[in-house]
Amino acid sequence: MLATPLPTLPFTDPVLIVATATLVFLVVPLLFERLRIPGIIGLIVAGAAIGPHGAGLLARSNTIVLLGTVGLLYLMLLVGLELDLHQFARHRARSIGFGTLTFGVPCALGVGLAAVLGYPLPSALLIGSVFASHTLLAYPIASRLGIVRNAAVTAALGGTILAEVLALLVLAIVAKSRGGALDLAFWLELALPFAVYVGVVLWGLPRLGRWFFRSVGGEGSTEFVFVLAALFAVSYLAHFGGVEPIIGALLAGLALNRLIPAQGALMSRIHFAGNAIFIPFFLLSVGMLVDVRALRGGRALVIALSLTAGVVAAKWLAASVARRAFGWTADEGGTVFGLTVPHAAGTLAIVLVGFDIGLLDQTEVNGVVLMILVTCLAGPWAVQRHGRRVALADQRQPYDAGAAPRRIVVSLSKPATADPLMDLAFALRGQGSDEPVHPLMVVPGEGVDAEAEVAEAERVLAHAVVHAAAAEVPVVPLTRVDANVANGIARGVAETRGSLVIVGWPVRRGGGRALFGGVLDQLLPRTRQAVVAARLTHPLNTIRRVTAVLPPGAEHHPGFGEALRIVNLLAQGAGAALSVVSVGGEVEGLKTLHAAARPAVPAAWERVEGWGELLERLGGTLGAGDLLALVSTRRGSLAWHPRLARLPEQLAALAPGSLVAVFPPEPDLAALGDAGPLGDVVEPRRVVRLESMSFIAAIGRLMEGVFDAETVRDLANVVVRNEEQFSSELVPGVVLPHVRLKGLARPVLLLGVSRAGVEFPRARHPARLIFLLVSPAERAEEHLRTLAGIARLLSAPERVRELMDRFAPGTELDWLHVDD
What we know:
By secondary structure, the chain is α/β, with parallel strands linked by helices. The protein has 28 helices and 16 strands.
């Protein structure tokens, strides 16, 4: 039997090296977290303790350097992937402003300090770039705290891109200037390769990724390997662009940002591999650089302390100026400081290049190592301390129904559509939600095959559970047995108290008045929750643009804000640009409503006059990479238009790519019973009998005796303008004009009855029942809720028949007998 040799120091056996490292990754963070110190700090300290300048268990060998470099590139990839591009675009000016501050202030202070210490200008410029550069070492803490979408953190991440690029460009300028003059040829040689490199990466990689995910992807491991290959290839090609690989890694993350959903399985795999393996190796390798013994001697200690104090002061000053300029809280400013103060990768690159070309000596290298140690300890501590308070402050914000997590029920019918619908649910679930997704299968439960159908449903649900587990999304699968599928879905929604229902896009069969035909037409009147019907022809992450269509009067629906939120979540989840087409609406008012929707997503707006122009416009612009989102509404609701009955079928034939229809939630009408505003219509003082007259005269006649002459004139003018733009016809023969009045105590509902009928400008039939609602101008939400309640109640034939029999006996409306 061979004797096992005892290991020597430092360890050389690869198995023992990996065993030691992984043991450190397991134990040290747990120990430091118990001491309420960020685990990241523990890994850096552990690297110093077991490294070549400590106990000597591990050498900073090629293996450690390789894995540490991979970890750094991986960290920069994550920053690019998790940067909220919509938020970044919205706060672009702040990101540029902060990037300028966090580069300019430290660079200026670094150059000034170097001049005071007696360095020549080229060396001083290098020290200035050392001050300006920083590494997002504490980013994993911000990600774990869930604050990466905070406006201040987004500005810090965006500003990091600018600061790091500028710092490394200063390095490139100083290094290249050693070999020649700073003439035009020098600047062209510096700028052209970099510009070409950036353009190729940001233009070519998204297209390559979109093709791959559509044509080749599907297996989680294949997609993950593609991301790794893109990361390292782009990072290596950075040398040809004249910059360091960390810039390439950041660009790779930005290029793939829109293709990797934050709530998807691929992002979960990327996070897992980085947090478990690659990033800990980077932190361990940083700790191994620390050599406190190298600071012996007066000048070395003075330089080290000066550089360390100068960097901390410079980054604190930049964060403080930005905090005051942009209105951040003290904790947001502290978090930004913690993110930008650590110096590691870029700093080492600058110092080592300066050492190689003779502008810096071993004294500066040792001083920078101490600076790295101090800043890498201070940054995570600051982010942990201040970031936790930022997260708690966000949780203490006043309750916003638009930002509340949603409980999603996904109706599944066949395996082929299960994954796309589940991915859609992950996107609409929103960031930071703890609510599980509820995949639902309804089995008819009739005949001898009922047991087999239940087993097939369980197989589909099992696949959905596995798919959700890969994305780290909790699920609660549901199976319902019901002869009517729509009843089964509605029952599942009610039992789970769902707030959003996702169904597959149904195939319309036959004619008639149905929107789609089939299950969806039966489901809509049985539910009041938001409903999304989806036809996804490509993976959601390959969508390039979301085009939302807003029909006339959509903004009057009380659930319009929720519809806008769903559209924004679609665009954000797909990482796609958003374009909105309004059919006859007031774009400026719609823009204001959209700006208030969360999450905030910038949009390009366009207005078309009618349905024909809409179809012509969409037919000429929609491509296979577009997702068309129609904001529709239930039949008989306030924003209903008869054209909406045929529009889904027309759009389905027109759109070559993915298509969704969004039905906003309907308000709970329990409060609009006989005690609500409709109760007043039975009182004689609220009912006006109208003879043959113009609609202008009819509006004025309705308000006489309720308001003074001047108010009647003003309100009538508003109603007339509204009716000339949009029809308020609910159903043939019934109209609901409405207006708001300042200072009104409560809503007033007036009823005009005309046996002959009153011709309204855009109505298809003469109005026999004219409901005129006047609401307080100060209570817009109440106005919309009341409108929706009246519209919903009057869409029922029995309610209209009751009113006609009471106030205009003998008068018939043809549509009342359609359903008889």
